[in-house]
């Protein structure tokens, strides 16, 4: 159980939520695990299948406290709310900002600042931890270049210009990805990003990680009442969760890239976990995906101190924390959306 920004997160399995007076009570096998007053809560987020009592659901509906249910792996199931009040206002504000490119740019540039900043510190940490295994001078040059791009992004007011700056930063960062692979270099190499289809083992893993992260981010956005399909940087396209792709930009490197590199460098994944198809596409085997997903779920349980909130939370709650912060910004509770800045 974790309270964060007036939201209660329950990530223990098989916990039943019930009502006692003005308190939520957490039960497991009829044993009380915890109790918390409801009067300060805006939302209750539960990971698991056990469910909630009708009394608690009715109490929350009457008081505009949303009850959100996810699977243990983080897939969005349902959001239970009472009369439409806050969510309508929130989504209308989201749509207005999305329709205005100037307003969209002001939000989107913070996603990109987070992405570039985090990639810069991935590079800096490599020079600190492996100075004899990477080209330190080259890494420092790229780090300096990323710092200069961040300054340009901070004052950028044009969406196309912002995309161009993000592209420059991505090219510089990707040039170093191959050097960050320290083990199994014959079987795992990175020359450039290939997506549809991925043409090597590393790109196959990156594509899988980005898909998982996008799904987690979309679920988190739905959980706070935002429309995951209406973005600011990524524009509307049928079937694309544009806002999820927006917010996950700041987490791509620090969450997904570092995860993939760790699986390779720790030899959790090896060349036997991949298949090459006739068209050149590389896919993971069933066993490889099983290893990957197990490690992904374990990663989500690791604790990190959130840089803006200053609280220790599992990595798996980071998308939910960012979704909450974005919703607060759109409600004018924050002057600026605070990106996730890792160091």
From TrEMBL:
Per the UniProt entry, the Enzyme Commission number(s) are: 3.1.-.-
Cofactor(s) of this protein: Mg(2+); Mn(2+)
Which Gene3D superfamilies did the record assign? CRISPR-associated endonuclease Cas1, C-terminal domain, CRISPR-associated endonuclease Cas1, N-terminal domain
Tell me, what is one Gene Ontology molecular-function annotation carried by this entry?
A: endonuclease activity
Please give the Pfam families that the UniProt record associates with this protein: Cas_Cas1 (PF01867)
Query: Sorted alphabetically, which InterPro entries does this protein's record hold?
Result: Cas1, CRISPR-assoc_Cas1, CRISPR-assoc_Cas1_C, CRISPR-assoc_Cas1_DVULG, CRISPR-assoc_Cas1_N
Q: Which UniProt keywords apply?
A: Antiviral defense, DNA-binding, Endonuclease, Hydrolase, Magnesium, Manganese, Metal-binding, Nuclease
Superkingdom, taxonomy of origin: Bacteria
Indicate which residues the UniProt annotation says bind Mn(2+): 166, 234, 249
Q: Which NCBIfam families match?
A: cas1 (TIGR00287), cas1_DVULG (TIGR03640)
What's the stated role of this polypeptide?
CRISPR (clustered regularly interspaced short palindromic repeat), is an adaptive immune system that provides protection against mobile genetic elements (viruses, transposable elements and conjugative plasmids). CRISPR clusters contain spacers, sequences complementary to antecedent mobile elements, and target invading nucleic acids. CRISPR clusters are transcribed and processed into CRISPR RNA (crRNA). Acts as a dsDNA endonuclease. Involved in the integration of spacer DNA into the CRISPR cassette.
Task: Give the record's subunit note.
Answer: Homodimer, forms a heterotetramer with a Cas2 homodimer.
Q: Which family does it belong to?
A: Belongs to the CRISPR-associated endonuclease Cas1 family.
> What is the name of this protein?
CRISPR-associated endonuclease Cas1
This protein's species is Neobacillus paridis
């Amino acid at each position: 159980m974790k309270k964060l920004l007036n939201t209660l997160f329950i990530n223990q399995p098989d916990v039943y939520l019930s009502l006692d007076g003005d308190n939520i009570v957490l039960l497991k096998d009829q044993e009380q695990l915890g109790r918390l007053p409801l009067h300060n809560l805006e939302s209750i987020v539960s990971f698991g299948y056990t469910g909630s009592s009708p009394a608690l659901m009715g109490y929350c509906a009457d008081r505009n406290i949303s009850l959100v249910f996810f699977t243990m792996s983080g897939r969005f199931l349902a959001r239970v709310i009472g009369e439409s009040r806050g969510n309508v206002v929130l989504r209308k504000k989201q749509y207005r900002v999305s329709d205005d490119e100037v307003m969209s740019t002001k939000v989107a540039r913070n996603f990109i600042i987070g992405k570039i900043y985090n990639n810069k510190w991935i590079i800096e940490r490599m020079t600190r931890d492996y100075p004899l295994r990477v080209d330190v001078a080259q890494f420092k040059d790229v780090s300096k270049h990323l710092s200069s791009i961040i300054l340009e992004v901070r004052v950028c007011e044009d969406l196309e210009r912002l995309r161009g700056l993000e592209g420059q930063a991505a090219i510089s960062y990707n040039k170093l990805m191959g050097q960050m692979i320290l083990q199994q270099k014959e079987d795992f190499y990175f020359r450039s990003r290939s997506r549809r289809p991925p043409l090597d083992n590393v790109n196959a893993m990156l594509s899988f990680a980005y898909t998982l992260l996008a799904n987690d981010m979309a679920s988190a956005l739905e959980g706070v009442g935002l429309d995951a399909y209406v973005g600011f940087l990524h524009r509307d396209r049928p079937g694309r969760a544009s806002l999820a792709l927006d917010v996950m930009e700041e987490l791509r490197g620090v969450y997904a890239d570092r995860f993939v590199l760790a699986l390779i460098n720790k030899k959790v994944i090896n060349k036997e976990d991949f298949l090459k198809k006739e068209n050149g596409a590389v896919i993971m085997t069933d066993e490889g995906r099983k290893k990957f997903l197990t490690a992904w779920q374990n990663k989500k349980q690791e604790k990190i101190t959130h840089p803006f909130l200053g609280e220790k939370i599992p990595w798996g709650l980071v998308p939910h924390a960012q979704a909450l912060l974005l919703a607060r910004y759109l409600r004018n509770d924050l002057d600026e959306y605070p990106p996730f800045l890792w160091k």
